[in-house]
């Protein structure tokens, strides 16, 4: 399944728009809370984004989509200890473009 930041998939036509999909993950730690960057923080943040993407893609698949376009990310602090990472986009059903 494609999950891309652009609004179209080159070489494919959007046959049907399924709708907005959102994947979230919350973590009890904020590796940057103390203002320092440590060596292991980057991979942890990447893993959080990957988890949010996986949840978004799973929801798109459940709804009958085979791609998500216009993918964006957001995050927010939930109190002093929790961080939420969101991945969202538009679930679509695509087919190869006619030659």
TrEMBL record:
Pfam families: YbjQ_1. InterPro entries: UPF0145_dom_sf, UPF0145_YbjQ-like. It comes from the Bacteria. Belongs to the UPF0145 family. PANTHER family: UPF0145 PROTEIN SCO3412, UPF0145 PROTEIN YBJQ. This is UPF0145 protein. It comes from Pilimelia anulata.
